[in-house]
Design brief:
Layout (H helix, E strand, L loop, with lengths): L4 H17 L10 E4 L21 E4 L2 E2 L10 E8 L2 E9 L25 E7 L14 E7 L4 E6 L13 E8 L4 E9 L14 E10 L4 E4 L15 E4 L5 E6 L10 E8 L4 E11 L2 E12 L3 E8 L12 E9 L5 E9 L4 E4 L2 E4 L13
Parallel strand pairs: 1-13
Antiparallel strand pairs: 1-20, 2-4, 3-12, 4-5, 5-10, 6-7, 6-11, 7-8, 9-10, 11-12, 11-13, 14-15, 15-18, 16-17, 16-19, 19-20, 21-22
């Protein structure tokens, strides 16, 4: 984080310290999943071509960092790797009209993209496997990208100011569909600039946090659940690099998701030998009985399997209350986890409004009067 952005980092460092102090307790299994290499690198052109990102881990919609509830503005995030580069694709809603003029204003690298009206923020922790022990390079890496492809980036070592001279090899392509109000961003970054050795990835893991930074109303929302300051590395979803482990993508939550009638659709892609996947999806909804769906799915070698759960109308509580879902997919013997995800949602989710919080119905998901 650079310039005035560093001040926000300093304000949140206490969460990082608190997370480190808490490592003596047994931690829950981290969110995230396994990654296997793309057979072919995606073409960065601002378009999600059919099949191009199939082997990426994928989530649908984003969650507020303060309430961990799904923001009603639609979107998706995808993550994968090929060769010596990481690849990230994000689709997200644009406001009904540009806030404060154009959708983005920063055109020069490292020129306050943090304050841009529409930006993506990504935090990288390539030393996730050894961070608790204090071994290895303790640096974090932060990257902002706006709709113009302008970047702001920093290398941050806990306890020191951000390194404003860190300029990684980043490539991105963007498509702004102003009719549908959708921003598609495809981003690639060289692993060597994150201190990673592409030849020694298998078996290692990375903490990686993807955020869509909204204005009107202001809210930072993440692809996987996260609470509070982004320097809280212990909450980053953890992604393990493998040669051929299954990769899971949420394809859809259904058209009536926010009306308490979710239709969960997931794809499990298996680039390796034949396996059996065990899926557990658990929904809680106010005082209604929990809904738990468990099943095993055969994964053919080099193939895929689909999982779907359509929740009947009125099985959950009324749309306005809070609901939550957790999804775990792994090996049938329980020894491997390939996907671990959790989220809350509501028709009227508690969310950030300006500098405070309150419930906002999905019909009022944009408030162009609020530009903080």
């Amino acid at each position: 984080m650079k310039h005035s952005g560093i001040r926000r980092l300093a304000a949140g460092l206490w969460l990082l310290v608190a997370g480190c102090m808490a490592t003596g307790a047994e931690a829950p299994q981290p969110l995230g999943g396994t990654l296997s290499p793309f057979a072919q690198a995606p073409t960065l052109d601002g378009k999600i071509a059919p099949g191009e990102w199939d082997n990426a881990i994928r989530t649908v919609n984003f969650l507020s960092i303060f309430q961990q509830m799904m923001d009603p503005r639609e979107g998706s995030a995808m993550l994968g790797f090929h060769g010596d580069r990481l690849y990230i694709a994000i689709t997200s809603e644009l406001p009904p009209r540009p806030t404060n003029g154009p959708f983005s204003v920063a055109t020069q690298r490292d020129t306050e993209v943090i304050w841009d009206a529409n930006a993506i923020e990504i935090w990288f922790d390539p030393n996730r496997d050894r961070r608790e022990s204090g071994a290895g390079d303790q640096a974090f890496y932060q990257l902002f990208v706006n709709t113009l492809g302008t970047t702001e980036d920093a290398r941050i070592t806990p306890g020191t100011a951000g390194d404003k001279g860190w300029n990684p090899d980043v490539t991105s392509a963007h498509m702004l569909d102003t009719a549908a109000r959708v921003w598609t961003a495809e981003i690639s970054i060289a692993m060597k600039d994150l201190g990673m050795n592409p030849a020694a990835l298998t078996g290692s893991s990375m903490g990686l946090l993807i955020s869509r930074n909204y204005k009107a109303p202001w809210n930072q929302v993440t692809a996987f659940r996260h609470s509070g300051a982004f320097v809280a590395w212990g909450q980053y979803p953890q992604f393990r690099f493998t040669a051929d482990a299954p990769v899971v993508g949420i394809r859809s939550l259904g058209d009536k998701f926010f009306q308490a009638e979710p239709d969960f659709q997931l794809a499990i892609r298996n680039p390796g030998p034949a396996r059996t996947a065990k899926v557990k999806l658990h929904i809680k909804s106010s005082d209604m009985p929990d809904l738990i769906d468990e099943k095993e799915l055969p994964l053919p070698a080099g193939g895929a399997a689909d999982y779907r759960l359509t929740v009947p109308k009125e099985r959950l509580h009324i749309p306005e209350v809070d609901h939550s879902v957790s999804i775990r997919i792994g090996s049938a013997d329980g020894k491997e986890t390939w996907f671990n995800y959790a989220a809350g949602w509501s028709h009227d989710p508690m969310t950030t409004i300006g500098w405070g919080t309150g419930r906002r119905s999905i019909e009022k998901k944009w408030d162009i009067r609020t530009t903080a």
